[in-house]
Amino acid sequence: MRLQWDPQKYNTGFTHIDKQHHEMFEGVNGLILFLKQSTPKEDEKNIEKILEMLNFLGEYAQQHFRDEEIIFEEYDHPMKDVNKEEHRLFLEKYVHYQKKLQEKMDQGRLTRGVLIQIHIFLQSWLVKHILKVDVSLRECAVHIKEDEYEEVLPEGVFARFLSFFKRDTTAQAAS
Ligand SMILES: [Fe+2]
Ligand SMILES: [Fe+2]
């Protein structure tokens, strides 16, 4: 199921962090779109794009974690170590999945199994982590001044992947 952004549920009160979380939801949705809509015939072409997107998502997550950890540190938040450790474990697992994907690619037998596993991991980790740890930033957000944090990451970064997978199916339906 597609991840729906619900500000009431997921907002931390730090606008740039919320935007980044929202973006990451879009990345996970890109993967769902691929898994649901790409036909076996299209897979070969789409798989390159999906790998590109997963690499990008990994880099994006790293940058997001850095931005977020700065805030946890600045406020000396009681969950700062838990947050950091969960981020570390996430990246460790993500690298493991990326290696697994690459191995399958090298052997020429990449099936949807690994991608489904990655999707389950990403979706459940993201939702759980935001709700359990990141939203605890709300108590700090009441103290922020406007424009205190710079926008480090651009917006709409996953849109090109989403439209790529969408366009493909439309093109296919039309033919
Ligand atoms: Fe976090
Ligand atoms: Fe986060």
Please give a quick description of this structure:
With 175 residues, this protein is mainly alpha-helical.
Biggest sheet details: none
How helical, in percent, are the residues?
over 70%
Task: Report the strand count.
Answer: 0
CATH superfamily: Hemerythrin-like
CATH first level: which class? Mainly Alpha
- Quaternary class: single chain
Approximately what portion of the residues adopt beta-strand conformation?
Answer: under 5%
List the helices and strands and how they pair.
Layout: H1 7-10, H2 15-37, H3 40-74, H4 80-106, H5 112-132, H6 138-141, H7 159-174
Helix pairs in contact: 2-3, 2-5, 2-7, 3-4, 3-7, 4-5
Bound molecules: fe (ii) ion (FE2) (2 copies).
What are the key terms here?
single chain, 175 residues, mainly alpha, Four Helix Bundle (Hemerythrin (Met), subunit A), 7 helices, 74% helix, 0% strand, binds fe (ii) ion
Task: Explain what the structure shows.
The protein is mostly helical. Helix content is 74%, strand content 0%. It is elongated, with a radius of gyration of 17 Å. The site of one fe (ii) ion has 5 residues, from helix 3. One fe (ii) ion binds next to helix 4.
